[in-house]
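Researcher: I'm preparing a figure for a lab meeting and need a structural model of a single chain. I don't have an experimental structure, so a prediction will have to do for now. The sequence is pasted below. Please return the structure as tokens so I can convert it later.
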Amino acid sequence: MGLDSLNIKILKCLQQNARLSNAEIGRQVGVSAPAVSERIKKMEDIGIIEGYKTMVSPLDIGYQLKAIITLRAFMGKLKAFLEKVKTYDEVINCYRITGNENIVMEVVLKDQKHLETFIDQLITYGETKTQIVLSRVVKQKEVIPLQK
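Model: Understood. Here is the structure written out token by token.
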């Protein structure tokens, strides 16, 4: 199954509002609700649509700090860290990157003491650098540019 123009239109609708009904998507793209449902199911089955999620405001549930932390892993520690990082609830995004550091993480923390405790866990794997996020300039985008 490829991304024909109809699938792209359906994906654009879902990226704008994943809670739209198949009937509403069908109205917007010009096909029936069952046709939309079938196409969405196929795109889910082959992995084009990876899932749906609810975005939660960390501040509103008690996380007062957001930070960007980079890690330069000690020799022989990267593989262990790549497994361990998956268990940290504080980490909301983690990327393996090129350059002097191996890892960049976006984390949410309750307060300064929580940050200190979290960094203490990280330093067993490597050297860290921490930047506190002051404000968000661009709202997180989960929209992939679709063209055809």
